[in-house]
Design brief:
single chain; 356 residues; alpha/beta; 13 helices
Length: 356
């Protein structure tokens, strides 16, 4: 069984890197290295969530196993010890995820995955833990089967997701892999959010990460008028947010920083508003799509394709500099779930050693 590395090297690199991010932001340069790395490994999905439109998008030709390994190695040579999140679509539609994770772990790269859990068996959960995977976020949108199934668009998947929670919790023991729930806050499930926190504690999970309902790709400021999951009573959701914040203060296993709940309150009151604070996506984020396109922000043009240019060269390119400049005055609609906050250094280091 591989043990997840919690090297001090990562924390030291973050200290140096973050000292450069302010300058990189000011001058639109790539002087600082990205600290939030995401690989979208597939757009394929086995369910049709109301909170996501990725499943309905055209499916491009995905990078092969070897191409993803090459990118992981290139990023390791460039970034040193880094942390990457593998997401989708449904991550485990790809049968090579554990092979990719194992390769990354051998290089000292910290890995995490996001999954709906419906494809995870007891055997697969053990393979995930043995591969050196650092963390897994399981999408769960309610404690009642009918709530989760309605939001996720397929009857009967609640039981499969809950089975995955148990398989992963069991497999994680002694491995260093942490298991958390990830929940989209919406009108349909808002009265079950506190129960999800209690469920995470009962199952001895790492915690729950709450994200507000928002457009996956759509930048239409009035997108929320097209869904029946948007809120019709702000007093109700504000009360729930207050209760979650109080639970957080009292030590509940809620992974959001407290300021997220304040921003959700503002966002739910005015979903078409622009985020007025600085968004650091241009100097903190580096994302690669399943077909190899590199981005700082998915809503901005690509920096290039990994089949044509290395991640390091793309990050330092003139095109990247131009995009960073545009991001500082960006007027694209963006919800708090997509907006990139910059934690203070002490908070980030503590979070790393606790959660990986």
């Amino acid at each position: 069984m591989k043990k997840r590395s919690t090297s001090l090297v990562w924390a030291f690199n973050q200290l140096i890197n973050r000292s450069l991010q302010g300058l990189a932001y000011k001058f639109d340069r790539g002087w600082a290295k990205p600290s939030r790395i995401i690989f979208c490994v597939t757009l394929r999905c086995n369910i049709k969530c109301k909170v996501c439109s990725i499943w309905s998008m055209p499916k491009p030709e995905e990078l092969t196993t070897e191409e993803f390994k090459k990118v992981i190695k290139q990023c390791r040579d460039w970034l040193g010890h880094y942390r990457v999140q593998l997401a989708g679509g449904e991550t485990f539609i790809r049968k090579d995820i554990n092979e990719i994770v194992r390769y990354a772990s051998d290089l000292g790269v910290l890995t995490g995955v996001v999954t709906n859990g419906t494809l995870i068996t007891r055997e697969l959960a053990k393979e995930m833990a043995d591969s050196g995977l650092g963390y897994v976020h399981i999408s769960l949108d309610g404690t009642k089967p009918e709530t989760h199934d309605e939001i996720r668009g397929i009857p009967g998947i609640y039981e499969k997701t809950m089975a995955a929670v148990d398989y992963l919790s069991e497999a994680a023991k002694g491995s260093g892999m942490t298991v958390s729930l990830a929940t989209i806050v919406n009108r349909r499930n808002m009265h079950e959010l506190k129960d999800l926190v209690h469920l995470a504690e009962e199952k001895d999970l790492n915690g729950v990460l709450f994200n507000p309902l928002g457009p996956t790709i759509d930048s239409d400021p009035e997108w929320y008028k097209k869904t029946d999951l948007w809120f019709d009573d702000l007093d109700e959701i504000n009360k729930v947010l207050d209760e979650l914040m109080e639970m957080k203060r009292n030590g509940a296993r809620i992974l959001n920083p407290p300021e997220h709940f304040d921003d959700m309150r503002k966002y739910f009151a005015n979903p078409s508003m622009r985020m007025v604070d600085q968004c650091w996506v241009g100097v903190t984020n580096f994302s690669i799509t399943c077909d190899g396109e590199m981005h700082t922000c998915f809503k901005m043009p690509s920096l290039g394709n990994v089949r044509d240019i290395s991640p390091k060269d793309a990050w330092n390119s003139m095109k990247a500099r131009e995009i960073r400049g545009k991001l500082k005055t960006c007027d694209i609609h963006c919800s708090p779930g997509n907006f990139v906050y910059r934690r203070n250094l002490l908070s980030e280091v503590k979070r790393f050693f606790k959660y990986g």
